[in-house]
């Protein structure tokens, strides 16, 4: 079985990181460095069914069906991940914990099987690393401590 495991430390509070990765208005701002997915119907409530919708690509509709499986705000979000066109269901988990002068964010995407799963994990892993290395820090830097975009944020025009 293949998996994606990414750990980043950010010089921001756990509350701010939680807000950036769970606020439906903020998620597309940091995923824009990847496929630009926006969540439709997302809430941090166990059992919530939602979709990530991105720009379609050859061989992919751009839609992923998800269900929130576990929430422990502001420490854990876990949800299922299934391509809208079918296939295996995998799981994504965000783990957030205080670390040094900021927060450690751990991203795990597990459950990829077979050769196709291996290649999918490689492709998604590359995209996720960029989103967490470039996209998320840009959003975090433009948020105040309450998790709101600064009035002069360059990201406001993307909302």
From TrEMBL:
Name listed for the protein in its UniProt record: SRPBCC domain-containing protein
Domain of life where this protein originates: Bacteria
SUPFAM superfamilies registered for this protein in UniProt: Bet v1-like (SSF55961)
InterPro entries on file: ASHA1/2-like_C, START-like_dom_sf
Source organism of the structure: Streptantibioticus rubrisoli
All residue ranges annotated as the Activator of Hsp90 ATPase homologue 1/2-like C-terminal domain in the record: 13-114
Pfam families: AHSA1
Family from the record: Belongs to the AHA1 family.
């Amino acid at each position: 079985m293949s998996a994606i495991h990414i750990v980043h430390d950010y010089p921001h509070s756990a509350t701010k990181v939680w807000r950036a990765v769970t606020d439906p208005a903020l998620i597309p701002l940091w995923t824009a460095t990847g496929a630009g997915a926006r969540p439709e119907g997302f809430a941090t409530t166990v059992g919530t069914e939602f979709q990530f919708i991105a720009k379609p690509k050859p061989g992919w509709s751009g839609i992923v069906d998800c269900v929130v499986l576990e929430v422990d705000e502001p420490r854990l979000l876990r949800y299922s991940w299934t391509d809208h066109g079918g296939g295996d269901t995998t799981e994504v988990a965000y783990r957030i914990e205080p670390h040094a002068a900021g927060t450690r964010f751990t991203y795990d995407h597990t459950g990829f099987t077979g050769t196709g799963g291996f290649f999918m994990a490689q492709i998604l892993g590359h995209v996720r690393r960029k989103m967490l290395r470039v996209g998320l820090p840009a959003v975090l830097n433009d948020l105040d401590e309450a998790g709101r975009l600064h009035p002069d944020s360059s990201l406001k025009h993307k909302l």
